[in-house]
Write a structure and sequence with these properties.
With 207 residues, this protein is an all-alpha fold. It has helices spanning 2-30, 38-45, 49-55, 59-81, 86-99, 101-110, 121-135, 145-164, 170-187, 194-202. It has ten helices and no strands. It is elongated. The N and C termini lie far apart (60 Å).
Length: 207
């Protein structure tokens, strides 16, 4: 009986947590530059302010929770795509943020640790995709594919912050993220696949 009650209690907490995050997203979309206070979120979510603090935490934890929500969505998108191609991983990641620009821009600007935003789902998927490319002989055997994926991830974070700051539009956001990937793949290409992996760079315009 205690196990059942504990399970129900966790389900109720999870539902209230989702309501809190949904309320935060709604408030941001209604007024992108508004002050997001615990009291406003609680009122919209129909919970007590203390519940917001207990289930999510202070304001920086709210941004962190929104970032985790983006990565959950990305996991679902990549699973639906059955993405094993690193280019598809990068495309899906960029599209995720540009599909919800108000929330993603505010989250990146406000969250102190937003440099970590891609450290979960896309980086894990990129590592797998790079390792698979190495197994298939596209990349040299001496390449450390995790390090290669980390370099691409860092470049994508930089492009994300440029887009958030409105220094580039969404097309250039994608172009710069793909450029980082193409440069990394070309640099690590096995001799027999060098021309294939250099081709995107030879045909690319300015990013």
């Amino acid at each position: 009986m205690q196990t059942v009650e504990g399970g129900l209690r966790e389900q109720h907490k999870a539902r209230r947590r989702r309501r809190i995050l949904d309320a935060t997203r709604e408030l941001l979309r209604e007024d992108p530059e508004s002050v997001i206070s615990t009291e406003r979120i609680a009122e919209r979510a129909e919970v007590a302010p203390a519940t917001v603090y207990n289930l999510i935490g202070p304001r920086d934890k709210i941004w962190e929770a929104l970032a985790a929500g983006f990565m959950d969505d990305l996991d679902d998108r990549l699973a639906a795509l059955e993405a094993g191609d690193p280019r598809e991983v990068v495309r899906a990641t960029v599209q995720l943020f540009v599909d919800d620009p108000v929330v993603s821009r505010r989250m990146v600007r406000e969250w102190e640790e937003s440099g970590l935003v891609l450290d979960r789902s896309p980086l894990i998927q990129l590592r797998r995709a790079m390792a698979d490319a190495q197994t298939r002989g596209l990349l040299r055997a001496d390449i450390h594919t995790d390090a290669l994926a980390a370099v691409v991830g860092t470049s994508c974070v930089g492009a994300l912050h440029q887009w958030v700051a409105a220094l580039i539009d969404e097309d250039r956001f994608l172009a710069r993220a793909l450029l980082a990937l193409d440069v990394a793949l070309a640099a690590a290409a096995a001799d027999s696949h060098r021309d294939q992996l250099l081709a995107p760079l030879r045909t690319r315009g300015t990013a």
